[in-house]
Amino acid sequence: MIKQIFTGFGFFTGISYPFIAIKFLAQNKQLWQYLIIPIIINFSVGIATYLLLLNPSLDLFDSVTNDIVLWVDKAIDRLPEWSNFLVYIIIFFSLLLKALLFILLLILIGFVIVQFGSILGSPWYGKLSEKLEILYTGKLEVIEINIIQDIFRAILFELKKLLLILIFSIPLFLINFIPTLGNIISLVGSITLTTTIICLDFCDATLERKRLQFREKLKFIWGKFPTTAGFGLICLTLISIPLLNLIIIPLCVSAGTLLVCDQKRNAH
After folding, report:
1. In angstroms, rounded to a whole number, what is the distance separating the alpha carbons of residues 161 and 155?
2. How far apart, in Å, do the first and last CA atoms of the chain sit?
3. Can you spell out the DSSP letters for 204-230?
4. Counting Cβ atoms within 10 Å, is residue 235 exposed (0-12), middle (13-18) or buried (19+)?
5. pTM for this structure?
6. Structural domain boundaries of the chain?
7. Rounded distance between C-alpha atoms, residue 58 and residue 98, angstroms
8. Which pLDDT tens digit goes with each residue over 174-184?
9. How many CA atoms lie within 13 A of 225 on its CB side?
10. At the N or C end, where does the chain have fewer CB atoms within 10 A?
11. What is the pLDDT of residues 23-71, one digit of tens each?
12. CA dist., res. 96 & res. 118, Å (int)
């Protein structure tokens, strides 16, 4: 029902897949056994990530926000009496900036949890994706390779993701120094890069069974825009919510499997 409502609206179709996955998992309880160990792994990774990153990040956040407060106080002191109304505008934008920085912090921590959780839980996610594909399509498309090749491809995939991040992150960081327009381009580019990586992570269990090359996986992700954009953004939102991001990864992997199966089916 959910899919029928959103079909034809690309971006919103992508957003709907985690909810479709919830319904599918609820109807197929035999898949639940493949969720337990990944969730335990994610809890371990999540707790370690919060312990290692949250306090230092919050200290940095406090330092930055204190600088903002000092800047606001100085700006207010320089204002003439007739422009007191500008005080409220300055305060509003300073609070907005603090909120955006905090959201960015949550996104960063969620992104780290996904990267490590996906690597450690990959054997179980692969099995979950396989069983789900069989139930959803009635068949399993897989090209068999030996264990050495499998490990090599997994390592190469992670290295190529890291290279992709570096290639785009450096120019985006430099563009950010261009006032206004550069900030907007950098923000849009960063969101695009992050959602691409998220889509690669959550669709890879299915795409890897076809033994696609990294560029072919990228071509699939970018070629299914705006559906993959909606999917990436909703998954990015879900993994950025504290505590929820400790259990949400298996759901996003399931959603990515359903998305790939549907897109492959529609392509034929």
Report:
1. 10
2. 23
3. HHHHHHTT--HHHHHHHHHHTTTHHHH
4. buried
5. 0.71
6. 2-262
7. 12
8. 887 776 677 77
9. 9
10. C
11. 988 888 888 888 888 788 777 777 777 777 666 666 666 666 666 666 6
12. 33
